[in-house]
Write a structure and sequence with these properties.
This protein has helices at 2-53, 57-83, 86-106, 108-122, 163-168, 194-205, 247-264, 285-289; strands spanning 131-134, 137-144, 148-153, 158-162, 171-173, 179-188, 219-225, 230-239. The protein is α+β, with helices and mostly antiparallel strands. It folds into 3 domains: 8-106, no CATH class; 125-173, SH3 type barrels; 179-264, Alpha-Beta Plaits (2-Layer Sandwich), CATH 3.30.70.
Length: 290
C-alpha cells in the first residue's frame, strides 16, 4: 500500500512539475519557431545572393545543405536552453565531443565523404555540365551534395559516386577548359597520292561546322602502314561551351564528308587483301573453285 502511495505521489509531483513548466515549453516552442523562420529567411537570402554571384551553383547548393544541418542543431540547443534544460544542452555538447570518436569509427565512410565534400567545395575539379570520368564511370555532372556527386552517363543512367572516392581516385575532366579533342581513322589505297589525300582531308575538315578552326585547327597524320591500306588519323577540337553542336553529330559529318571528298577526287578506299596459299602443287585453285 505504501508503494502505491509513493507512486501516486511521484505521478502527482511529475504532473505539477509539468504544469509549472508548460508555459515555458509553450514559450520555447514559439521562440524556436520564430528563430527557425528567421534563420531560414537569412539562409535563403544568402543562397539567393550567392547563386547570382557564384560561378558554380554546386558550391551554393553544398553550403545550403550544410546550413540546413547547422540550423537544426542550433534550434534544438536553443529550445533546451529556453525550457531551462541548460544542463541537458551542455551534456549534449559534451557527449557530442566524446561520441564523435565512436561515431567516427562506426561511420568512417560517411565522415570521409562529408569531409571530402567540404574539401571539394573549396577546390573542386568540375562544374555542373562538365564531362568527367572517375572509377570507370563517364558522364555529365548533375549535382553535388554533402555525401556524393550525381553523374548522368551517356546512356541515361544516374550514378551517385561518394565524394571520398572522387577525391582519392584519378579524375578526368574532359571539358573544364572548354576544349575536347576527338579523332577518327580513315584508310586509303596504297596506290593513292598521300600528299593529295592529306590536303583534301585538311580542307574538308576546316569546312565542317562545330570544329574549331583557328585556336586549335584540325590536323591529320599517317598513323600506320596496314596490310592493305595506309591509315590516316584525323584529329580535331570541339568547343564544349557551345551547345549548338553535338559531338557525335560533328564526328558523323566529318567522317561522311571526308569519305565523299576523297572519292570525288579519285582517292580510292582500300579493300581487304586475302592471301591464299596452295601447298599442294597437284591441285589448281581456279579449277577447284569452278
Amino acid at each position: 500500500m505504501n508503494e502505491i502511495t509513493e507512486i501516486q505521489e511521484q505521478l502527482i509531483s511529475f504532473y505539477e512539475t509539468f504544469i509549472s513548466v508548460l508555459p515555458r515549453i509553450g514559450l520555447a516552442v514559439i521562440l524556436t519557431l520564430l528563430v527557425g523562420f528567421f534563420l531560414r529567411f537569412i539562409r535563403q537570402k544568402i543562397s539567393l545572393i550567392a547563386s547570382k554571384r557564384a560561378e558554380d551553383p554546386l558550391i551554393v547548393d553544398f553550403f545550403d545543405e550544410v546550413g540546413k544541418t547547422l540550423n537544426i542543431i542550433l534550434l534544438i540547443l536553443f529550445f533546451l536552453y529556453v525550457v531551462g534544460l541548460e544542463g541537458l544542452a551542455g551534456s549534449i555538447l559534451a557527449a557530442a565531443g566524446i561520441s564523435t570518436f565512436v561515431i567516427g569509427f562506426a561511420f568512417k565512410d560517411i565522415g570521409e565523404n562529408f569531409l571530402a565534400g567540404i574539401v571539394m567545395a573549396f577546390k573542386r575539379p568540375f562544374r555542373v555540365g562538365d564531362i568527367i570520368e572517375v572509377s570507370g564511370v563517364q558522364g555529365t555532372i548533375q549535382e553535388m551534395n554533402i555525401r556524393d556527386t550525381q553523374i548522368k552517363t551517356f546512356d541515361g543512367k544516374d550514378v551517385f559516386i561518394p565524394n571520398g572516392q572522387i577525391l582519392k581516385n584519378p579524375f578526368y575532366n574532359y571539358t573544364i577548359d572548354g576544349f575536347l579533342r576527338n579523332q577518327f581513322n580513315i584508310g586509303i589505297d596504297y596506290g593513292s597520292d598521300i600528299a593529295k589525300a592529306r590536303n583534301i582531308i585538311q580542307q574538308t575538315m576546316e569546312q565542317i561546322p562545330g570544329i574549331i578552326k583557328e585556336e586549335k585547327p584540325p590536323i591529320n597524320m599517317i598513323a600506320e602502314l596496314g596490310a592493305s591500306s595506309i591509315t590516316i588519323t584525323i584529329q580535331y577540337w570541339l568547343d564544349t561551351f557551345d551547345n549548338n553542336y553535338s559531338g557525335l553529330e560533328v564526328k558523323s559529318q566529318a567522317i561522311a564528308r571526308v569519305y565523299e571528298a576523297l572519292l570525288a577526287n579519285n582517292v580510292n578506299m582500300p579493300g581487304d587483301v586475302i592471301e591464299l596459299k596452295n601447298y599442294d602443287t597437284g591441285i589448281s585453285i581456279s579449277n577447284k573453285a569452278s
